[in-house]
Here is the input.
Amino acid sequence: QPLSLDQAMSAQANPNLEQTRLISENEGSNDENSNFASCFKRPTNLLHYLKFSNTNGKFTSLKTILVSGSGFFCDAYDMFVISMVKEVLKARYPGQFTDADNAMISAAVLIGAVIGQLLFGFIADKMGRRVGLISTCGLLLIGAIWSAAAAAPTVKDMFVVLACARGLLGIGIGGEYPVAACSASEASEEVEPQERGRNVLLVFSMQGIGAVVANLVVMFALAVAGTSDQGLDFVWRFAFGFGALPAAAVFWHRWNFQETRNFAQAKEKQGFNSKSNSSADRTEQATGSLPWMFILGEYWKPLLGTAGGWFLWDIAFYANTMFVSEILTVFGVGKGSLMATASWTLLIACIALPGYLAAAFNIESIGRKNLQMCCNGKIGCCHWYCSF
Here is the structure.
C-alpha cells in the first residue's frame, strides 16, 4: 500500500521505518488466523475473529464496523429498494407512471449521490469524520421520511416531489461512501495488520445485507397489505419509510463517535504548525501546489487503479441492482405477480452474500490485487455469457 504524505516524509527521514512496516505486515499476512478456513481447524481461531481485538484490547474495531457499516446498510437499502418500489408504482398507477417518471426517480438518487460524494469528502477532511457521519445519517433519515410521506395535488406532481426526496436521500447516500469508508480504513490501521482488510470489507459487506433486507421488507408489506390500491399505497410508502429506522437507530452512536486516531493526530499536527509558522508561511502552505503535485506524481497509478476500477465496477453493480426488475422482465422471469418478482430479486441479492464474507475473511491470504482480478474477471465472464 502507498504511504501517506506524512508517512512518506517520515520514511525519507528514517529509511528503516518503511522496512519495519513491511516486515510487520508480512508477518501479519502469514498468520494462520488471517485465513478464514483456519477458523474451522481450531476453535480458538474462530474466537479470535469474533473478538475483533485491537492493540488496546477494546472492541473499537467492532464498534467502527457497526457505526460505519450501518451507513452502507442504509445506502444499499435506500438505493436498491427502488427496484421493487418502481414495480409497485407501475401496478398502483397504470398509465400514469411513465418511463419518464421511472427515469426521473431513478436518476435523482444517482445525481444526489455524486453531489454527496464530492461535498462530504471535503467536509470530512475539513470538519472531521464525526461531523460527516452525523450529517449523512441525518440526510438519510430526512430523505427516507420525506420519500414515504411524498404528496402533491396531482399524481404527476407527487412523482416530482418523490424525485426531490430521493435526490436529498442520494446526497446522504453519496456522502456515506467517502466518510464511512475513510473512517473504517483509518480505524483499521489501529488494529493488527492481518485484520485491516477484513475490517474494511466487513463494513462494505453491509451493502449486501441492506439489499437483502430491502426485498424482505417489500415482500412483507405485500403479504400484509395485499395488491389493492390502498394496499399498494401502503407498500411503497412503508418500504421507503422503513429506511429511516436503521438511520435513526445508529444516529446516537454516531453522535458519540470519536474521531479516528489518524485524523486527530493530523489535526493536532496542523494546529501545531499553524501556531509555529508565520502568517506568510501559512499562506504559502495553504496556497501552494506542492502537496497536490506530490500526490498526483507519486500516487497516480494507485489512484487510477482504485478510482478507475471502482468507476467501472459501479457501472455493472448499480445497473444490475437498481434495475434488476427490468432485467428480470427482459429475461421473462418473475412475471405474473409482484411477489414473484420480489422473490427472484431476493434470490439474486442472497447469492451475493457469500461473496462478501468470503472476500472479507480471505483478503489477507489472497491479496487485494489478486482478489479484485479474480472477482472482476468472473463478473466480466458472467456479463459476456448473459449477453448471448
